[in-house]
Amino acid sequence: MNQYPTVFVSGFLGAGDEGGLHKIYRDFGVFGMDMPKEMRKRGYENFQPGVGPLNSTWDRACILWAYLMGGRVDYGKVHSEQNHHERYGRTYPGVLKDWGQDGPHKKINIIGHSFGGPTVCLFSSLLQAGCEAERAGTPEDELSDLFKGGHGHLLHSVTTLAGTNNGTPATDLLGVKGRHFAGALLYGAFMTFSETRAAKFFDLRNEHFGLMKDPATNTDHHFTNPWKRRAELKNVLNSDDEVFWQMSVEHSKKQAEHYAMIPTAYYFAHSVRMTHDNGKGHQVPYKGITPAFRITVPFIDRYRNPRLGIDDTWAPSDGIVSLRGTEPPVGMPSKAYEEGETLQPGLWYVMPTVEGKDHQSYIGMGEKKAEYYDYFEGLLKTLRDLPDA
Known about the structure:
This protein has helices at 35-41, 57-69, 77-82, 116-129, 132-137, 145-148, 169-172, 175-193, 230-237, 243-246, 249-256, 293-302, 369-385; strands at residues 6-9, 46-47, 71-74, 88-92, 108-113, 155-161, 266-270, 272-273, 275-277, 283-285, 334-336, 348-350, 354-355. The protein is an alpha/beta fold and 389 residues long. The protein has a domain at 6-167 and 248-275 and 318-385: 3-Layer(aba) Sandwich (Rossmann fold), CATH 3.40.50. The strands form four sheets. A seven-stranded parallel sheet has the order 2-1-5-6-7-12-11, with helices on both faces. β1 (6-9), α1 and β2 form a beta-alpha-beta unit. α2 (57-69) packs across α4. The longest helix has 19 residues, at 175-193. The mean pLDDT is 95.
């Protein structure tokens, strides 16, 4: 049995455990619960970093590396030039400076919910293989250790909870104009308050795009007119570094082509389902689904795109993400988990789908406190019991 810590990575709009919002609303516990804190009480060391509620998987992975190891965030020379943003970000003290040394921090477990799913997939891939483009385009003395690769031994396991590992049709059906419109509205709303004291309450962590300032160092508090930064906003929306685009099936398939698996790490894909066949060939929601998902379910049920391979099998969903989207990244070796089997590293296990729960169940929405806490304790115990490979 190991004592390795767990890192929880939030999904789209998740702010981590930093900032004032965490005192009221939590990414893993919503209102009235704090699952990571409870797990620490039960003897499971864990961390819940803020990696940016609107950041891309790449930018999140770079922040996560600095958060864990300490140092200044390096988004990569090549990546930052391609996406027209600053190369360097904030400086972190490091919560696991002894990561990789013999002892309880020799390895870590990493768990991502929703958009946190592809985040941890990319992060684990970078640990193992690094990035060839960054190695080729960056002077050796400037290259971040994250992009060098060779760090796969630092991970014990990778787990996704309703991860958008293969995207969600809910994003693809918006189309380019729809994604740009949704992004402009969302970014614009947050930008209005991004340089007020409210930024410490909900920190976007995307000042590298020039949309805001670091709340920790900003002393010139004022409301921002998003229109005056429309050039910066347009740059984000038209880049490959944009969250709505990255949640699409189209982008997710392209990103999965570059994933590298760690032969000594364990991989698990968990999912829930909140729709069922109505006997007429359509998926309808179970009672108790998050109200907003009653709008998205019919669109996911009916959306088809032969070019992307989105067919009838993509109709069942957890309300916002198709079950096909929560499967292991396309092209990765995987198998359905069988009760009692001996688990092997270097292979994705597709865990049994839990019926009657929706996408927000993993963050505690509508869940009973005792059952919610016990679920995660069971999950963490399973990871703790896995032998080192």
